[in-house]
Amino acid sequence: MKISAKGRYGLAAMTYLARNYAAGAPVTIISISEKLGISKIYLEQVFSLLKRARLVNSIKGSQGGYQLSRAPREINAYDILSAIELSLMEKAAPAAPEKMPELDRALDARVYTPLDNAIKKSLESVTLDTILTAIDEEKDAASLMYFI
Description:
Elements: H1 5-19, H2 29-36, H3 40-52, E1 56-59, E2 65-68, H4 77-84, H5 101-124, H6 128-143
Antiparallel strand pairs: 1-2
């Protein structure tokens, strides 16, 4: 499985929105762009997909921007990536459909389907809250000072 730049930017932008969720104020694409160093035009494409998937709400006007549509604990990495990545769980073309259909069925049953299920389960277990907690843990670990 390969996650595109758009998918990685989507995860980062959604995590940024999650960090600001408690404030209740919409966050502009420009502020996300500046904070994360991601192109504004690229983020607009990402947010169009996230909005279509109903993961974010768009607020119009001078005080507008984007907000998460649900609490960070209710949005997981699978939700985000499946909204952005068109080929997240794309089925592989059969290896030899006419010559050996039993091979294709066996590969699907023993390799592809279990792998797809494991990836989905793994991504569903990581919520935006999980990512925020990991960020805090990384900050704490980085701030530790060791004396010898």
